[in-house]
């Protein structure tokens, strides 16, 4: 009896967004009297970081500090329309809508600043720190706060913008099945190293090495988090998640989600990930979606590593000890 | 059955409360005490999200009838947080990006607090064992384990600086 080591590789191309009936998201932005900007969305941040990334995109486009952008999310009764956070679409769709809204608001902001400074709006730049000034003359400038005050109390203007990103519906060509299903594709590759116990059929994932090409990584720390969390879910799909018992005794099977088997802190693998940036042509600042793809390549990589370790090729998930032991029996010519 | 009066010390303050029979500690914390930092997860002792400290030991507050801990000292995430700034464990979680949706975070931090009070220099395995009763569905655990190890370093160096 032995613990057999193996290594497997798998790669994934993953679509960003979908367009089954047209795929829109909208954003509205306005400045408060204090020169903060509020972005109203119907999108939900459930931990993936759309609020953080949305505020980054708005701050970059407006030319104001990140801290002066507030994101007001997730009231689908009152907010502008969003299809939702799925299909790895959030950063791309909502990000594009925010960027468009921020561009419109920036135009008004620069116009008010130009009137206040008695210069041409085309000569003005933002310093990203809360001031607007004449290009090349930092002293001839005005704080964004004062621009907001002037807009509200002198000019009777709202520094606001509307953003809409729509991926139009793509009809399927009946003859070929051809269509345009997404906006861009992200790519990834995982190398998994596993150990298979040929007596118990138990698999331990020892290490996963990942490379991700996700356009522009808007927030590398958040992207890295998605990779690690997604790889964990990949391990979970590959080895654990089933309503069948982990060992073939019905009493060991899950009765509800609290007993549904997923890897715990003791089952995680050493993780080494790199991000490669090749900006997309249509994402905000070149971003693509990373959300769902992170659980993809780990699964076939683990299956391939198991094959490399013990010669058993399992083609259905999860790869439970029972499947491995049956496979080993078949390889040895033992009847099941 | 009648309501009863239970006395607890919650985050250092003595509290008396009228509780319905079978009320759990989390009911009291969240509903009558307004301490909503403790999260209600599975309500069957399987996820660890509702973990608080009872007399210094971790306890799942969803499983604990409050009448059975009369006189106990209870500490929640609100009690761990200093009046100014953050506790070193919170700081380590923040700096290490050890939270995504945040639902498991207060339970994880309370478990870490109990571990580090008992063992200021834990190994990675010690940390894994300590959080093995706590479920996280976002992070893949790696960042949480790293943050708790980082918190241990922060607390030790703060203690060292104080001694010197």
Sequence-ordered SSE layout with sheet pairings:
The complex is a heterodimer of chains A (336) and B (164).
Chain A: E1 3-16, E2 23-31, E3 37-40, H1 50-62, E4 69-72, H2 90-117, E5 124-126, E6 131-134, E7 137-143, H3 144-155, E8 160-167, E9 184-197, E10 203-213, H4 220-239, E11 270-276, H5 298-310, H6 321-332
Parallel strand pairs in A: 3-4, 10-11
Antiparallel strand pairs in A: 1-9, 2-3, 2-8, 5-6, 6-7, 9-10
Chain B: E1 4-10, E2 13-19, H1 25-32, E3 51-54, E4 57-60, E5 73-75, H2 77-80, H3 88-95, H4 105-118, H5 124-130, H6 142-163
Parallel strand pairs in B: 1-5
Antiparallel strand pairs in B: 1-2, 3-4, 3-5
Helix pairs in contact in B: 3-6
GO molecular function, one term (chain A): oxidoreductase activity
Protein name (chain A): Xanthine dehydrogenase family protein molybdopterin-binding subunit
Domain Aldehyde oxidase/xanthine dehydrogenase second molybdopterin binding (chain A): 4-267
């Amino acid at each position: 009896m032995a613990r057999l080591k193996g290594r497997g590789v798998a790669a994934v191309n993953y679509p960003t967004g979908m367009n089954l009936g047209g795929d829109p998201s909208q954003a509205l932005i306005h400045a408060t009297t204090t020169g903060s900007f509020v972005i109203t969305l119907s999108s939900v941040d459930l931990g993936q970081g759309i609020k953080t990334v949305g505020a980054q995109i708005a701050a970059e486009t407006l030319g104001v500090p990140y801290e002066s952008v507030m994101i007001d999310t997730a009231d689908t009764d009152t907010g502008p329309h969003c299809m939702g956070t799925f299909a790895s679409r959030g950063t791309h769709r909502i990000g594009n809508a925010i960027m468009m809204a921020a561009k419109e608001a920036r135009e008004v902001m620069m116009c008010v600043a130009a009137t206040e400074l008695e210069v041409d709006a085309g000569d003005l730049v933002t310093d990203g720190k809360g001031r607007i000034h004449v290009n090349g003359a930092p002293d001839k400038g005005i704080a964004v706060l004062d621009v907001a005050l002037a807009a509200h109390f002198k000019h009777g203007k709202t520094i606001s913008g509307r953003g809409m990103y729509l991926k139009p519906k793509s009809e399927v060509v009946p003859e070929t099945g051809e269509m345009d299903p997404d906006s861009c594709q992200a790519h990834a590759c995982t190398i998994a190293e596993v150990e298979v116990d040929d007596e118990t059929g138990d698999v331990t994932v020892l290490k996963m090495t990942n490379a991700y090409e996700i356009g522009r990584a808007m927030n590398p720390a958040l992207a890295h988090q998605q990779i690690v969390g997604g790889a964990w879910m990949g391990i979970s799909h590959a080895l654990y998640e089933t309503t069948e018992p982990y060992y073939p005794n019905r009493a060991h099977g899950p009765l509800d989600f609290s007993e549904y088997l997923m890897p715990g802190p003791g089952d995680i693998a050493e993780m080494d990930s790199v991000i490669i940036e090749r900006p997309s042509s249509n994402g905000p600042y070149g971003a693509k979606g990373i959300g769902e793809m992170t659980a993809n390549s780990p699964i076939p990589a683990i299956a391939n590593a198991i094959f490399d370790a013990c010669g058993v090729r399992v083609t259905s998930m999860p790869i439970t000890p029972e499947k491995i032991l049956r496979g080993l029996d078949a390889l040895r010519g033992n009847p099941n | 059955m009648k309501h009863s009066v239970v006395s607890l010390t919650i985050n250092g303050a003595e509290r008396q409360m009228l509780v319905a029979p079978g009320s759990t500690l989390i009911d009291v914390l969240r509903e009558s005490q307004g301490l909503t930092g403790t999260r209600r997860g599975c309500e069957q002792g399987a996820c660890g999200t509702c973990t608080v400290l009872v007399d210094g030991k971790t306890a799942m507050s969803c499983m604990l009838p409050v009448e059975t801990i009369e006189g106990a000292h209870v500490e929640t995430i609100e009690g761990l947080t200093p009046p100014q700034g953050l506790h070193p464990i919170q700081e380590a979680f923040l700096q290490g990006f050890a939270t995504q949706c945040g639902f498991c975070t207060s339970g994880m931090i309370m478990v870490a607090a109990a571990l580090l009070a008992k063992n200021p220099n834990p190994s990675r395995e010690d940390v894994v064992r300590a959080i093995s009763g706590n479920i996280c569905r976002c992070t893949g655990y790696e960042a949480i384990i790293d943050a708790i190890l980082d918190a241990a370093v922060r607390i030790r160096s703060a203690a060292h600086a104080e001694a010197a």
